[in-house]
Please model this.
Amino acid sequence: MKRQWQFINSGWCSGEYNMQFDVALATNLLEKGGMPVLRVYGWEPYAISLGYHQRRHDFDETKCRDMGIDIVRRPTGGRAILHADELTYCVVMESERKNISESYREISRALERGLRILGADVEYVSSQPNFSSLYRQQTSLPCFTSSARYEIRHNGKKLVGSAQRRYSSNGREVILQHGSILLGSAHRRLSELLKVESLEIQAIIEHELESKTTDLSEVLGRTVTFEETAYAVKTGFESEWEIGFIESEVAVEQH
Model:
């Protein structure tokens, strides 16, 4: 008999709602038990999410406000992402004594299988840079200018950016991992919203985002929709992990 998971497609919601929802899923599983969850969602309005330890004043809040872009803080680590034309996934499950590397790898395998259903020739990264050194550079402010181990790329360009956090209580440990699957190129506009020391640094960041990232529409040569990507991701997890999903309806914010 297949293991049962909960699947939630919560559509497009505000950044604050999305982050609170992910945390609530993790804390509920930790405190009350129940089924693990795969959630997919989008962002309306667009938003920049900051890693848990990242500085808000590195971003031009006035410009973001004028452009209708929110700024929120993720419960997970990593660097900033402009959530625009993308599908965000969230996995909430018990760690089952697997370390961060093992769980990242298993989640990436499921994502890889799902993206291949769409026809994307993808791979995950086997190594990663020295992040403690990299993060001291202003050019590292965006998440998508570098790839961590087991993040997914196409032809050497980053397609999926992910971050993980673990919650523990009374000997139990729950994983919250969420990440952005890029559908289009709007994430690259993050370079316009940074407060940096010079136009030269801004130009470098813009070039890094252009040269080191890709998106599903670019990979497949056609417009890729949120709904078809949601179906592919769900199917990838079902196939790779041999699980069955129970779909849940949730009340979401109206815009």
